[in-house]
From TrEMBL:
GO terms for molecular function: ATP binding; ATP-dependent peptidase activity; serine-type endopeptidase activity. It catalyses: Hydrolysis of proteins in presence of ATP. PANTHER family: ATP DEPENDENT LON PROTEASE FAMILY MEMBER. This is endopeptidase La. It holds the Pfam family AAA_32. The active site is at residues 436, 479. Its EC number is 3.4.21.53.
Amino acid sequence: MTNKKLEWKYLLPDLADFAAVFDQPCPPLSAPLATLQARLMDGLAQFCHSRTPCRFMLLTAQEEEDYFQLIAETVKQILPAPAQPVGSRYVVTGMGVSEQPATKPEDNFAAHDVCVWQSWLEYEQLFGALRCYRDAIDLQPGLVHHANGGVLIVGARALTNQPLLWLRLKQMILRQRFDWLPADDSRPLPVSVPSMPLNLRLIVLGDREGLADLNDLEPELTRLALYGEFESELRITEAEEMAQWCGWVNMLAQRQGLPALNADAWPTLIRQSVRYSGDQCQLPLCPQWLTRRLKEAALYGSQQALTAAAFSDSERTRLWRESYLSERMQDEIAEGQIMVETEGQVVGQVNALSVLDFPGHPLPFGEPSRISCVVHLGDGEINDVERKAELGGNIHAKGMMIMQAFLMSALELDQQLPFSASLVFEQSYGEVDGDSASLAEGVALISALADKPINQQIAVTGSVDQFGRVQPIGGVNEKIESFFALCQSRELTGAQGVILPTANVRHLCLHDDVIVAVREGQFSLWAVDTIDEALEIMTALPFDHDKRPSLLASIRERIANVNLHERQRLPWCFRWLNWFNQS
């Protein structure tokens, strides 16, 4: 078998080709969306065109202030300022109101800007207010009046949570006319106010769930509106793309009044960014996440520059603050309350890895767990205890069935498997879902059927398809680090390690203590493409081989022995009939 052990250099992003980018100052991006968001920029340019037929645009992004500001600034760069005042002027005479076109920017209902945004708004904030007090009428403009002739950007949640507000706004935009209507139909307006012209375009900004809720409220809008999306990550393959990302970060730092980054700070920030994005070739563009990292590092650095030490110290402190739950889990294992073996060999037992993500807790963390399998004479049924106890989700059940299909295909039996098996996550009392344990379950099942032990110093993660190919999974860094922490607490032996899918190698960005241990040969990582490779690492036997002892041969021999024993128990006439049928 080809050596699948990973060298330490694969455990973090390779930044050697970008050293020149870090050594020279990267100016902040002056037009960030035009540089990094070409698709979104094209959509905004079309939406802001004077002859565009669309009055609505749906934009997928987080409903956070940074996104609203970036979109609004870009729209202002695209839309020219009007040559003449836009809007109206309301004249109040006693208890009567008349409407006239605005002639100067100071008029009470003249537009204030070509683009106005608000993440959350109330009725009067959007449409203005009409108040009467002691025979005096007071008219207050709303956001639709401030943005008249331009673009209004609002959050999707504000519209979906206030359907009446959305319906009235939509009708006014389509009719291009603003009508004074009461916020409550049971309380009519005290006086009649004439309507006014309204030339407004609307951008609804929200995440995918928010826009899905809006689609439920207004199904036609998805087909009628322009669509744009803020791409959350930038794929880095060339030095030019890295320079653009650095310019984006410097732009965010400049907007917050933070110092520039030192050359040594970039690799540290990039490692943190890769952990966030989950891919060595993709760096996040999320302004909220990046701004938080910059601000936290500024607390540990000088006022002149942000250094690598500042980013490392802030990250180390943050992880310590958020690691109480993961440390308690490790304590439970160390105290023997959760049983996980990291030495010796056991038939039908494998160390699997999962990721726990508690609602309200910011840090997902890995957890080692035992999967065990026992085999006995039976009718070929493979029992998934989690599923039967209604603790296994649908994706977990799918992974189990795929793994069973692979095994049945590999055995090439012309009759039913004479064994039954039972697979279980030991000491698991909550719902289990996902297929990332199907590789571990397959290893445990094959070990139990072949009656060959599994090395308990090795943990495994990955899913399997029907052809035995190992597929990528999520949370690979957290899973590896959880098993490493367990092994480190019990003393590293040099034979411990984790098996992971080859497709997950590009997702690796591990902590320094894991990298040092791998570099010094105290801990190992193996990348595999098939379940055959994982089995050979964990059992020291090939899954199938023509000339050497193999796991498949052991299973077939065991099946043959059972069948022979069953035939010897039959009366002589049935044994003769069975021989006749075979010949």
